[in-house]
């Protein structure tokens, strides 16, 4: 799954189950620091609709969060 996420920039999974998940990585200084995840009832939205409607804003939001962490140094950490 990691290789697919690295290639596509997101993960869509669980569409065979009751709940599906859409996730995008959050990067800061080219390192993955977290992910932004949206979970929804599979009966409510199809994967293609998720990709079209929600991936662009989730990706933009993840990019903004990562940029907010650029230059952040936890108290006591050396740079």
In short:
With 79 residues, the chain is an alpha+beta fold. Helix content is 37%, strand content 30%.
State the secondary-structure class. Answer: alpha+beta
Secondary-structure element pattern, one letter each: HEEEHH
Poorly predicted ranges? none
Which of globular, elongated, flat, extended, rod-shaped describes the shape?
A: elongated
The value of Rg in angstroms is: 15 Å
Major sheet details: 3 strands, antiparallel
pLDDT average, as an integer?
Answer: 86
**Total number of strands:** 3
Notes on the structure:
The protein has 79 residues and is an alpha+beta fold. The radius of gyration is 15 Å and the shape is elongated. 10% of the residues are buried.
SSE order and pairing:
Elements: H1 2-8, E1 11-13, E2 19-28, E3 31-41, H2 47-53, H3 55-69
Antiparallel strand pairs: 1-2, 2-3
Observed structural traits:
three-stranded antiparallel sheet, single chain, elongated, 79 residues, alpha+beta, 3 helices
